[in-house]
Amino acid sequence: MQSHDSFGLKDVLGPEHRSSLFIAFLLLGVAYVAEHFANVYEQIYSTRPTSVYVGDLLLDNLPIVDLNLIIIDGALISIVLGILFVVFSKPRYIIFSIKALALAILIRALFISLTHVGIYPGNIDPGVGFFDGIYLYLNFQTGFFFSGHTALPFLMALIFWDEMRTRIVFLMMSLIFGVAVLFAHIHYSIDVLAAPFMAYGIFEIAKYLFPRDFKLIKPAS
User: Fold this and answer.
1) What is the distance between the alpha carbons of residues 90 and 141, in angstroms, rounded to a whole number?
2) Contact, 109 vs 38, CB < 8 A?
3) Which of 23, 83, 146, 157 is the most buried (most CB within 10 A)?
């Protein structure tokens, strides 16, 4: 078996892993389509009289703070930097990471299609800038349970658990984004607090569904 240290981008694109990489991107595309329609449904449902906001112990006591610089610009910049980091520094993580993220998006799309609560009063809306438009196009604003801002970095921390510095960076991102969406009142506290548990469950499911891809990221024994 090829050593992990010598595994490069050319190996990901090579014949041995090409089909798995194609399936990963296909799954990601399906996940994004599912998320899009789930968010459209969520927006339509939110206009019904039965879709009302609920009380939240944390939000009821937290001040409303405009943290769009972190929630929008920070999230998009983190995505770009994360992609560059994985592609050029950790290529053996590419396939499993894509499949795990796609699975997370699919599961979140299912969850936000099931239960609908109203937007908490005073939540900070995205602006009208370039980054805000991209953010809205990627459907990050609609849907509550569970918080993607919190769950996705936490999922990446689990994937990179054996890489201590990378793990710490992703855990810090998950914490910062989680705090930011609470202060901006764009998520209920349950959305944020449940996100790490959801991420861990998704990680375990991905390990079970994609064992061959997960084996690529395990350190050599």
Assistant:
1) 30
2) yes
3) 146
The total number of structural domains in the chain stands at 1
> For residue 4, is it within any domain?
no
pLDDT at 130 over 80: no
Q: Among 2-6, 19-23, 55-59, 135-139, which stretch is predicted with the lowest mean pLDDT?
A: 2-6
Find the domain containing 156 and state its range: 9-217
pTM for the full predicted model = 0.90
Structure tokens at 106: 């699919």
Q: Do 170 and 96 touch, CB atoms closer than 8 A?
A: no
Residue 2 lies in a domain: no
In sequence order, what are the residues at sequence separation of 6 or more whose Cβ sits closer than 8 angstroms to the Cβ of residue 95? 12, 17, 20, 21, 24, 210, 213, 216
Cα–Cα distance for residue pair 89/1, rounded to 1 Å: 20
Q: Which of 90, 100, 103, 101 is nearest to 217 (CA)?
A: 90
When pLDDT is averaged across residues 47-51 and rounded to a whole number, the result is 71
Quick one: 144 exposed, middle or buried, by C-beta within 10 A (0-12, 13-18, 19+)?
Answer: buried
pLDDT of residue 63: 93
Range 181-191 burial, b when 16+ CB lie within 10 A, else e: bbbbbbbbbbb
